[in-house]
Amino acid sequence: MNRDIVLLRTVEVVAIASYKYIGKKDKNLVDKAAVEAFEVMLKNEKGFRLKVVNGEGELDQAPMLFVGQLLGDLEDPSVMTYDVSVDPVEGTHPAAYNFAGSIATIAFSRENTMLQLPEMYMEKLFVSTEFINEIDLKKGIVESIKNMQKKVNRKDLKCIILDKPRHKEIIKKMNDLGIIIRLIQDGDVLAAIDVVNGDADFVYGIGGAPEGSLMAALAISAGCKMQSKLVKYKDIWPNEKESEARMKKETAWLEKHNLDFDSILEDLDLVADHRTRFFAAGLTAGGSLKPVDYKNGKFYVNAFMSSHGIVRNFNSVYDVKKVNDLKPEIKFLFDKYKR
Question: What are phi and psi of 97, to 5 degrees?
């Protein structure tokens, strides 16, 4: 089967499997269901192999999709291997408490084209196709905003930003610049999908670095633009006891991955493949992506895919009885995770 259809269907079924635990106030149950669904959906696929470059954890932290894990066709040595960045549930907290901000997502590219990103903070700026030539994080976010405003000759650009204490100052500056701000609690990858779908002009903020790979793949595949820079833990949490130990880990990570805190990382630095593809499906979702729903024996899933500058939004209906009759591997998941 076409690998794009396989991965699209995978994120949709991951959303369905996770549905059982939405609002149950247990992040681990949501994540466990999503991870199992990913592995079940991909373990018997033929014709391609996926290597996790940016996942959730290391080998000894299973059940996670760990760095270096192989999925797909593991028997045929002749099949092509692709790099993947994957987050079975981006936004486990909003999924567990049933508020907006959670999706299932994966991106893939040619082998050895994805940069492995450590568990660190990252400053990220993701802009729509209209502003791909207007941003330069070397000069700072304010200068980039002014350039974008100048490009369209208006101030009221729409920005999505995480509602965190670390963003207090820049939120004030954006308000002073006339920017319309939408605050979110979680999910900057989901926010970037909203930019692609035209619900906002840009996403800005400091969040997790591994998610930066997903956002970079989305930017490249949708014709948008992203720039990023790694941020020191102590710059975010200067008074935490953990900061000193965390800085030692970060130094080791930077040496291992040949990275630093000064370089501006373009999207193609994170995913060096113009043919990269990005997939997502809504759990609690929000914005332009709708949450998964269940009515009268059918699951309703809103999914998203981008590749080669083409953006697709899907509304899929899974009739549980019909799917169970035709797809035993999905029946296993539907039976285990029925609500």
Answer: -110, 5
| Cβ atoms of residues 97 and 25 within 8 Å | yes
Per-residue tokens: 184: 């979110």
Q: What pLDDT score does 57 carry?
A: 56
What would the two tokens of residue 242 be?
A: 């953990």
Q: What CATH architecture applies to the domain 3-114+274-336?
A: 2-Layer Sandwich (3.30)
Cross-strand pairs, 184: 162
Q: CA 197, 220, 174, 147 torsion: positive or negative?
A: negative
What is the C-alpha separation between 282 and 305, in angstroms, rounded?
Answer: 12
Number of alpha helices (DSSP H) and beta strands (DSSP E) in the chain: 12, 14
Digit-coded pLDDT (tens) for 112-140: 999 999 889 999 999 999 999 999 999 99
Class of domain 121-270: alpha beta
SS3 label, residue 232: coil
CB pairs under 8 A, 24+ apart, for 261-265? Answer: 261/229, 261/230, 261/231, 261/232, 262/229, 263/229, 264/136, 264/137, 264/138, 264/227, 264/228, 264/229, 265/115, 265/212, 265/227, 265/228, 265/229, 265/230
The structural domains of the chain, with segments of one domain joined by +, span 3-114+274-336, 121-270
Backbone torsions φ then ψ of 133, nearest 5 degrees: -105, 10
Q: Are 50 and 108 in contact (CB under 8 A)?
A: yes
Number of Cβ within a 10 Å radius of residue 323: 18
71 closest CA partner among 46, 41, 42, 106: 42
Report the C-alpha gap between 20 and 52 in whole angstroms: 26
Q: Are 155 and 165 in contact (CB under 8 A)?
A: no
pTM of the model: 0.95
Give kind and range of the element (H or E) at residue 148: helix 141-152
CB proximity list for 292: less than 8 A, separation 6 or greater? 15, 16, 18, 19, 22, 281, 282, 283, 285, 299, 300, 301, 302
What are the tens digits of pLDDT across the range 62-106? Answer: 457 888 999 999 999 899 999 999 999 999 999 999 999 999 999
